[in-house]
Protein: Major facilitator superfamily (MFS) profile domain-containing protein
Amino acid sequence: MALANIYQRIPKRYIFSVLAFFGMFNASMLRSNLSIAVVEIITPRVEITSNNTTRIIPAVHNWSTTTQGYILSSFFFTYTAVQVPLGFLATRFGGRIFFGGSIGLCAFVSLFTPLCVRSGSTALILLRLLEGFCLSSVYPSLHVVWSIWAPKTDKSKMASLAFSGVYCGAFFIMLTGGAIAADWSWEWVFYLPGLSALSWT
Structure:
């Protein structure tokens, strides 16, 4: 049986469920990656050179715990503030557009995170506020889609599959983010999830 025939036989709501899983997976990585990278940003590194001398590379920033708290929490100020109005807009204009568009826009914006980190805490806070705004429509828009696409008998299975992407994405970035920051650089903790989410979009 040809691959095209198999694709035609699969109900489109199941294909959307798998796509929604990976969408939530990417959204979760975009939301959680700064929690991993901030450790590398504020910690000086010790490097051993080829002639066995030790060189200390200073931290990118020496942010206080208060500043780190503002930076890490800034995402959630806009994330929680506009979910209800964006849910109404998703109902009016279509959840699919808001779901895919918000992840794609946040992925694009997150690629500028290393630039904002180097510019200072204010630029990073503003960027995180924008990212929170971008991702705030993910949950309401996906619920709009399920209310239209999912029959009552399949709704719980489809929603469970899609929303499990949140936990898998957080688990994946927590598992690999430290290794990425240590082996490559902390910038790639933002570049890889951003590129992954853009390719998904």
Remarks:
- The domain at 21-200 is CATH 1.20.1250.20 (Growth Hormone; Chain: A;).
- The mean pLDDT is 88.
- The chain has one domain: 21-200.
